[in-house]
Amino acid sequence: MKAKRKSDGKVIEVKPQRFMEHNGSMYAPSDLDFNVEEAEEVTIDGWLTRSVSGNIVFSDSSECRKGNRVWYHKEGANVVDLDETGLFPNNLFPSLTWESNPLEVTITIKPKKK
């Protein structure tokens, strides 16, 4: 369940039975506003690299370096081989090659209009 923290306006995810944020923070019901509107769209910023085998790899961190056969990403970074998801074809961004620097991108997800 989403709620807005009255102290700073931040929207947080809480467990209704305890009013506990996922990180373990506890809140009294009087500290929360439960009238939270869902976002119209969500954006995810990150960087794309291309593997030596041609797959596109997404990372949420720009800190990466190229090894002999793979890109090494910052420890703790979220890294996804987009080919493995089946959602993105490898022919996207044909100018992005193994030799290229990471490409900064924004992925936007929004509900489809009816």
Summary keywords:
4-stranded antiparallel β-sheet, 10 strands, 114 residues, 2 domains, elongated
Structure description:
This protein has a four-stranded antiparallel sheet with strand order 3-2-1-4, with no helix packed on it. The longest helix is centred in the last third of the chain and has 4 residues, at 82-85. The chain folds into two domains: 2-33, no CATH class; 42-109, no CATH class. The mean pLDDT is 83. Helix content is 4%, strand content 37%. The chain contains one helix and ten strands. The protein is elongated, with a radius of gyration of 19 Å. With 114 residues, it is mainly β. The protein has one helix spanning 82-85, and strands spanning 2-5, 11-15, 20-21, 32-33, 42-50, 56-59, 64-66, 71-73, 79-81, 103-109.
The order of strands across the largest sheet is 3-2-1-4
Mean pLDDT: 83
The tally of domains stands at 2
Encode the helix/strand succession as letters: EEEEEEEEEHE
Helix/strand-derived class? mainly beta
Number of strands: 10
**What is the general shape?**
elongated
Estimate what percentage of residues fall within beta strands: 35-45%
Helix content, binned percent? under 10%
